[in-house]
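Form 7-S
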Amino acid sequence: MKVYFEEIPVSTNKRFELIDITDKVEEAVRNSNIRNGICLVFAPHATAAIVANEHERGLMEDILTKIQEIVQPERNWKHNLIDDNAHAHLGGALIGADRVFPVKDGELVRGTWQNIFLVEMDGPRSRRHVIVEVLGE
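Output:
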């Protein structure tokens, strides 16, 4: 079995933001030269997450609105006494830091309306990164 590892740098501009990283993940899969296997997409950050969904502006805004409703950024969370970002930690814990996709015939397998996004919840950040690891033959 072969293993390929690539790190994708990402900068964010807003406190809450969806950054479409689909093209970069697909490029990493192509760079791997792995024909069949799996692709792990992982955000090594406690205040960010990875989701797969449609890249449609209204839906993207709806997703961010719902996340903010759930994590309540203005609430007086206990962790805010330390660094005022409890909402982002909660969002990361609830959404998750990773997604796994199949790789078939050298291509990332995803649904027609599934793009891959980094979910920023504690931005802006100039130095985020996403790990792409492809395993297979």
